[in-house]
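Subject — a protein and its fold
Encoding — discrete vocabulary of local shapes:
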Amino acid sequence: MNIELTIDDRTISGELFENPVARQLGDLLPLTLTFDDYNDVEKVAQLKRELALDGVPEADEPQPGEIAYYAPLQTLVLYYGSPGRWPGLVRVGRFDFDLDALRELPDRTVIRIS
């Protein structure tokens, strides 16, 4: 599924992968979320509801430029660095945005995903 991320006045293209968690996320779109930096690797935003992890591996290792769902904290994550492999982490998509520009976004940045 093709998606768009809107940051300020910029529109970024992306896609959701074909897996059960990504489909659940797609059903929630459009979403407007507030992202904060975490651990100099990622931008995270709290989802209002939990996504079921049925049918996906119990751990994953996202790469820069990918989107993931982190089940233990119920967060959507945009990666500009490599976090390593974590249980409860599921890659759900990817985006086309300058990773240094993503890193520089201030906390409380609002991003719309549609």
Remarks:
- The mean pLDDT is 96.
- Helices lie at 20-28, 99-104.
